[in-house]
Hints:
The structure holds two protein chains of two kinds. By secondary structure, chain A is mainly alpha-helical. Helix content of chain A is 73%, strand content 1%. Chain B: It is found in: Cell membrane. Chain B: This is Sugar ABC transporter ATP-binding protein.
Amino acid sequence: MKKLLERRETSVFLILVALCIGLTIYSPTFLSYTNIKNVLVSNTAMGIMAAGMTFVLITAGIDVSVASQMMFSATWLALLAETPLGNPVTIVLAALLIGLVTGAVNGALISKFDIHPIIITLGTNSIYRGIILVFTNGRWLMNLPKWFTGFSSTVFGIPLPVVYALLIFLISAYILKHTYFGRSIYAMGGNREAARYAGVNLKKTVFLTYTYTGVLCGAAGLVLDSILGNCQPSGSNGWEMNVIAAAVIGGTNILGGYGTIGGTVIGVLMMGVIENGLVVAHVPTYWQKLVYGLIIIVTVTIDVLRKKKADSRKQMIEID
Amino acid sequence: MSEHVFLEMSDVSMTFPGVKALDQVRLDIREGEVHALMGENGAGKSTLIKIISGVQQPDPGARILMDGEEVQFPNVHASIKHGINAIHQDLSLFPNLTVAENIYLGRSKNGKVDWKECDRIAVEALKRLEVQMDIHELLGNLSVAKQQLVAIARAISLSSRLLIMDEPTAALSFSEVRMLYEIIRKLKKENIAILFISHKLDEVFEVSDRVTVLKDGKYVGCKDIGELNESTLVQMMVGRSVTYEALNQESYAAEKVLEVRNISKEGNFKDISFTLHKGEILAFTGLVGAGRSETVKALFGLNPPDQGEILIHGQKAELKNVTQAMKHKIAFIPEDRHHEGLILNMSMEDNITLSILNQMLGKSRFISSRKRAGISGEYVNTLNIRPGQIYKMAKNFSGGNQQKIAVAKWLVTKPDILIIDEPTHGVDIASKTEIHKLLKSLAKQGMAIIMVSSEWQEVFALSDRVIVMRHGRIVHEDSTRDGDQNLMMEKAILGEVKA
């Protein structure tokens, strides 16, 4: 119990609950079914990518190409849907396969040449986006077929995208907690050299991490298309920053070693609720960015100060 | 302990770019023995144990026999399979994981982690050590000593035949060291052999059965502990192979440049007092971690003391930061040249003139390239830096020449007091001699020099007086001309001289 209270996720969760209560008091429509559903559905694609980002950040890496990977998948899926080959089965397979490829390219370049991931993913961020813009001339892909938007329908009052996201969170949490690969990610982020001494294959771990993130981005592309019913190849610009922010607010250490899927989900909800809350409270949307920025800096600063205090017991010489 | 030798290594060499870390070394381990691996800093001990534990690969030609059969340790898993595991010096642990997982990590069945098994292994390993610990605590929240115990627990859970420890007691307090000795004796009874690196002679005599000594990457010998006493062991370690030209002449002036009175800093050094004269080279020596670097850093404002006073030219001086130290004409050349001394991606000229850029202004009030080139060229000549290309990047010079550039960078400030930490660390013999001559000629010109060195021959060849430190205190001070070298070494290592 004490440990649960000490965790960063707990304090962010409590802030989130307080925020929700405050918003409900201010405007009861916040707690309405339609509004809650709206908040959850509109953040599913972001949440799915943030799960992948959590893996990457724990290894002490970073992936700034997630939004481009998602749009890369979303665009090809929208194009595929217009062809005779387009049906629900091929679309799902294609989404995962496209993500697998974009992620594997990132992972291969980073592990093979041992270049800092921010360089590689800055490059591929531009390349993936460039490819779809060249191919579509920036044209919006409108009117996706009915079976495609059916992916985001609501069954027994539960929106399907939320179900997909939950499933992905569960799988991701399981991988992190219960597989050798997952523990290698933490080991590598905690002490890279020690991980090598313990027999962890660093190159393989890096490759798998970025590949898995790619697969999730591919899935996020499918979810996004189905929710919007169209695809704008130049859209979702800058989402990678919100994805990173969500993970960091949820307690993931940007320098590696710490982070949980649960925390990241709380981080995503936090950002979603703030966005929605500002609308509910009739605050001009221009305030949104400002508030995001403050939240990121305040939550992370508190965490860093706390850690510094703990580390201050430095190594000293024993004087006899 | 049986006489049965189960691990035999011979012709083990290891070449790093430009350095032969190990040269035809051999080592054999008997079942259930405690074997000490000794040698000075840079003798190749850590490299050897990295090879046994599969972290590094030796040059081709090395022979490793396990129970008479030739084997290889291409990776950590291979060593673990043969029942061998090591605790490396820089604790190879994970601060972000729990105690249990730190002990368990690296084992898995079909890629899955069995958390029950993890807890079971951790509990069992800690039980063997008779240590009480919350296995679900994060390792980073533990003291260094407790972390060391976790490292041992991890290693014994992986080693059925040989446990290797690199300076296991370096971070432990007296009572914890006692506990470690108990653990070693218990493992011995379980017929597990222990190979450990140590600089502490008393420890080696207390627990080990045999000792192998390395020097400069070469095998010196292996002896039963009964055949040795403390001085014969020191003799084996230090040897007499390298001799430098003796440059110490005790020629310094009576003028006191620096007087340090009873400075102390918690957890760093205590009651340090000494005097430095004009034209003198004063050496600070002792074991790594004795507080030498911490003390000299205090003189350069990098590690201000809590108590005591420092007088420069007879006047009380405040040395709270580097700017103040530089105003008092003090220069400091750190040991770690790559990180603290030089900016490797800048040219030699940029490095040399960095600390005096404000004097490099031309008539236009902009930095004058002609002035900078002039100064740099001057020091290339006086210090004989080769090649003398002032626009070449610092990283492209050899170790010896990089050291000279680091020296030049501070000489341009025309200091009265020069502090140099390990002046010839990682430098070849020829450059060493050159650096020695340079320091001596600077002293002759009146500069007062403080040198930190772990190399006894260097201390005796170069300095006029020597201060020996141990556990943050000065334990001995003597002139190098009539001082007894063995006596000082014993003081540094043991703290007192046994009759």
